[in-house]
Specification:
By secondary structure, the protein is mainly α. The chain has 14 helices and six strands. The strands form three sheets. The protein has a two-stranded antiparallel ribbon with strand order 1-2. It has a two-stranded antiparallel sheet with strand order 3-4. Strands 5-6 form a two-stranded antiparallel ribbon. A hairpin with a 6-residue loop joins β5 and β6.
């Protein structure tokens, strides 16, 4: 190679290096916070928001410098579809990669409410009030609104039984109707098409399954007994027998009680399964996943009766009424 060619190659190498350094410098500058200001910007990311649309909004709000670099960063890293919807408090003094990490990890500005299994509508309203500051009466009214239930495809006049037990992370200012919608939407996700097909094969509607599952939820205290108790109730329904479930009487009376008295069994209510055959009009509480599954896939058992033994929530099961009475006398 001639001296001139070597000199030209050296200059090209220097130029490429300078261009590379310039590009690195430009990328570093574009990834920096747009200003030295501190503080946060509240951003709502709706489900389905594209990376391009979000990048433009973040730039307009002063969170990042370059929407193009934001999009490229996420696409190259394979995170473009992993941004999670929610409400974010995004700091103004973070780099573009840090902002992208917050969005991908879903570090939203959320409040939390935990709804355990077996709560009634008004009890769920109380939980929402304590955790989120929602007016309990407003939530109870929303969940008892037939128009809202109908809009959500619920076959009853209220959302009793469909406010699915779960820990919810929601926007701190969520309203009572929106919270009810979130909980019913989660129920819809849990009650899968496979479960729907199973309900169809049993000749039962979702509403009937949820209703019976709510009784199983209230009766069962031990996980292993759920499918057994469900099997007993299915046996009684198929035989045309009264369910005679104490929790339905408690629901008819309007509250939980230590013991159901003989006089309580006479309460005039369609929820009283000591007086009315078949299922009550609707759920008496919100069943969890395990009780729903036990109701859909009960154990095949020969039993028609059970009684609480008083031993850690266990029950004694019987095939005949005579055997049932014998076990009751033994327990007393």
């Amino acid at each position: 190679m001639s001296r001139r060619a070597r000199r030209r190659a050296a200059w090209v190498a220097v130029l490429v290096a300078l261009l590379g350094l310039s590009a690195i410098g430009a990328l570093w500058w574009l990834s920096r916070p747009p200003s030295e200001a501190s503080g946060t910007v509240i951003i709502d990311v709706e489900p389905g928001t594209t990376v391009r649309t979000l990048g433009r909004r973040l730039a307009a709000e002063g969170v990042i410098r370059s929407p193009l670099l934001f999009e490229a960063w996420l696409r190259i890293g394979g995170d473009a579809r992993r941004i999670q919807a929610g409400t974010y408090a995004l700091p103004l003094d973070r780099t573009l990669p840090a902002i992208a990490g917050i969005l991908v990890e879903g570090r939203t500005l959320l409040a939390s409410v935990t709804v355990p299994e077996g709560l009634r509508l008004e009890e769920t309203a109380g939980r929402a009030a304590r955790a989120l500051g929602i007016d309990s009466a407003a939530f109870a009214a929303a969940a008892s609104d037939p128009a809202l239930a109908d809009s959500l495809g619920i076959e009853a006049g209220t959302l009793e039984g469909y406010l699915f037990p779960e820990t919810y992370r929601v926007a701190p200012d969520i309203g009572p109707r929106d919270l009810a919608r979130v909980m019913v939407a989660h129920f819809r996700r849990v009650f899968t098409p496979a479960w729907q097909a199973r309900a169809d094969s049993l000749g039962r509607s979702i509403h009937e399954i949820v209703t019976l599952a709510s009784i199983v939820e209230e009766e069962a205290r031990i996980a292993a007994e759920r499918p057994v108790i469900a099997g007993v109730f299915w046996n009684r329904l198929e035989a045309g027998m009264l369910l005679e479930a104490d929790p339905t009487v408690q629901y008819a009376l309007g509250g939980h009680r230590e013991r159901v008295l003989y006089e309580d069994l006479e309460v005039d209510s369609p929820y009283n399964t000591y007086r009315n055959t078949g299922l009550p009009p609707g759920p008496i509480a919100s069943p969890g996943r395990a009780s729903l599954e036990a109701t859909l896939y009960p154990d095949s058992v020969p039993y028609y009766y059970f009684v609480a033994t008083g031993e850690d929530g266990r029950h004694a099961f019987s095939e005949t009424f005579a055997e049932h009475l014998q076990k009751i006398r033994a327990l007393r």
